[in-house]
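Practice record 12: protein with iron/sulfur cluster.
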Amino acid sequence: MPLSKSLYIRGLQCEKSLWLKKKKPEVLQAPGENAQAVFDTGTSVGELACELFSSGERIEFSGDFDAQIAKIKELIKRGTRVIYEATFCFDGVLVMVDILRIGVDGIIINEVKSSTALKDVYIDDAAIQYYVLSSLGYEVSRVNIIHIDSTYTRDETLELEKLFCVQDITEQVKQKQRDIPKILNKFDEILSQNNEPSIDIGPHCTSPYPCDAREYCWHKQRAIPEYSIFDISRLRSDKKFELYGSGVIKFNNIKRSK
Ligand code: SF4
């Protein structure tokens, strides 16, 4: 099974989460209504962004990645200028480029996000796409993140050029390239093991994304009660983990520690 872009991002957030997803998926929680709503919004925004680059081609996914990859290769060979959700695979790493454009200087990777700002995780997201495409021998001239411009106010008609903001992140993506082979080797090593990695809970459980193994790690393994120091609303996250690190988990533990 190839390592997808979302698994790569999962592994960067927490190697245990990557291991669980591949080896023990039954402990992960299914996405709730909120997560599904976020996903649906992302899909709608992605479709709208495609309209910024009209006349592109899309290969409907048949369930066969090899066939999909071969068709994309063929489209590029035929001189197609814009391809939506273009799939590529290099050395077991599979990526889908939201909107791929072929310009005079090479390929432009456009990654679409439904958020209103550029986030660090988006750079990693685009960096693995750049890694796969450049390793396959394609000349990538530019990498963009396309996200919603929060300053845009809609009039009668929706103006897509104003709704979306395009940020060039090529340099940031290039700076990530040197570390990617080392990261992928580490992931291979982790996934070759039969025992789950020993990683404690921490701020990484919610950042950059809420982890779907929280029930398992927090409650089943670490026995964090329903109400704990993590529910103190005015306490900073780093302070909560500092208390947790010193063995303080329940409210009454705080009183005793005074
Ligand atoms: S809940 Fe936290 S420790 Fe457990 S897999 Fe997820 S990120 Fe890792």
